[in-house]
Design goal:
- By secondary structure, the protein is an alpha/beta fold.
- The chain has two domains: 31-128 and 292-333, 3-Layer(aba) Sandwich (Rossmann fold); 136-291, Rossmann fold, CATH 3.40.50.
- It is built from 13 helices and twelve strands.
- The chain has helices at 2-29, 43-58, 73-85, 102-110, 136-150, 173-190, 203-206, 213-227, 244-256, 274-282, 293-308, 343-349, 355-358; strands at residues 32-37, 62-67, 90-93, 115-118, 128-134, 160-165, 194-195, 238-241, 266-267, 287-290, 330-333, 336-339.
- The longest helix is centred in the N-terminal third of the chain and has 28 residues, at 2-29.
- It is elongated.
- The protein binds beta-D-galactopyranose (GAL).
- The site of beta-D-galactopyranose (GAL) has 12 residues, from loops.
């Protein structure tokens, strides 16, 4: 008799737990998360969007994922405003222009909606609660170091010729990518081992609007014309490029000028986009920096959960990223150098790409 009662009680408990879990899932599903991505024109943001959506949905949330066309700022502003009006409880935003979102950010703050700056820091607004990104200075350090290693600058007197390219000035990351690379390269420029023949060394002169491939191609073509670079002309030993879409434009210009994998200058990149991985395998691009968007999505989803459940939000950097209104608590993921020697392990064995995608 007693035994029977225990069984009944246990069953009641099991069912009520199950009912609770069910209810919790249902309540979580009522929570809508707004995800605003800058563009569909670059591979990485499509992967970012897919990964965040998938992982948020696996955690039970409803997701409103929007892309602002091809870097259309008014559209991004509109989309964020719509997310606020549609009752999103939290926003994840990768800004096109770091300085142009204060309007919708103020609206989010007034509505009590926390904002996570995703990959790129939104500047000049105290509405940003947290920042999830990769260690952007380290990205630049890795690119600079790859040039030092490839040209063996420690043991050579040079002079080696280098040209410098970075991304969009409205992207706060550019300061860290370019700054991190120049921290490594500047001593060699100062000692004359590296020379920038064009003398274009400021962030502004080396910028690429919207990280656009055609724009970097145009600038590289102009440098080839003005400096006389070519396989049979003035030697060009290395090009610093802050990411892959910019590197692809540089590659197009160099190939058109007659460079092949046999005499290609050292060329850096970032994102391990498929085109660039293929170029690394072919021997034109030297390296890229792999930023596993699955890991960034995972960290961001952890932040979302902690914020919504009132728990301690996981961060590992509270000193580096000041958006003009103070330090934004940040989680920095680890960037990893990718090249023709390690891409299989890094990108295929980890399941990021299939062999066919890179074939
Ligand atoms: C940066 C981002 C890079 C690259 C670039 C172009 O902000 O950190 O990974 O994708 O934008 O979209």
């Amino acid at each position: 008799m007693k035994k029977g009662l225990t069984i009944v009680l246990c069953l009641v408990l099991v069912f009520s737990f199950a009912a609770c879990a069910q209810k919790e899932k249902a309540t979580i599903a009522e929570i809508k998360v707004g995800v605003s991505m800058p563009t569909t024109s670059l591979q990485r943001w499509n992967q970012d969007g897919d990964n965040i959506k998938k992982q948020l949905e696996e955690a039970g949330y409803t997701v409103d994922l929007q892309y602002a066309g091809d870097n259309e700022i008014p559209l991004q502003i509109q989309q964020i405003e719509d997310m606020i009006a549609d009752g999103c409880k939290i926003l994840i935003v990768a800004a096109i222009d770091a300085n142009q979102l204060s309007g919708p950010m103020t609206a989010a703050k007034e509505a009590g909606i926390p904002v996570i700056s995703y990959d790129r820091l939104i500047m000049g607004t105290n509405a940003v609660s947290y920042y999830a990104t990769f260690d952007n200075t380290k990205v630049g350090n890795l690119q600079g170091q790859a040039i030092v290693d490839a040209l063996d600058l420690e043991n050579q007197a040079g002079p080696f010729h280098i040209e410098l390219f970075t991304g969009d000035l409205a992207d706060n990351n550019v300061n860290f990518f370019f700054g991190g690379a120049m921290d490594v390269l500047q001593p060699y420029i100062d000692s004359g081992v590296l020379v920038v023949p064009s003398e274009q060394t400021t962030t502004a002169l080396c910028a690429t609007e919207n990280w656009n491939t055609e724009k970097s191609q145009e600038r590289m073509e102009a440098l080839i014309a003005s400096q006389g670079y070519g396989p049979n002309g003035k030697k060009l030993d290395a090009i610093l490029s802050s990411n892959d879409s910019v590197a692809n434009g540089i590659t197009n210009a160099l190939v058109a000028a007659g460079y092949t994998e046999k005499n290609f200058p050292v060329l850096t990149g970032q994102d391990c986009d498929i085109t660039s991985v293929k170029n690394m395998i072919a021997g034109t691009q030297t390296m890229s920096v792999f930023k596993d968007t699955r890991i960034l999505a995972e960290q961001t989803v952890k932040m979302v959960k902690a914020i919504l459940e009132g728990e301690e939000v996981p961060v590992n950097d509270t000193t580096t990223y000041n958006n003009g209104t103070g330090i934004i608590p940040t989680f920095l993921c680890e960037p990893v150098p990718g090249n023709a020697s390690n891409y299989k392990e890094l990108l295929i064995e980890s399941g990021y790409y299939t062999e066919e995608q890179l074939g």
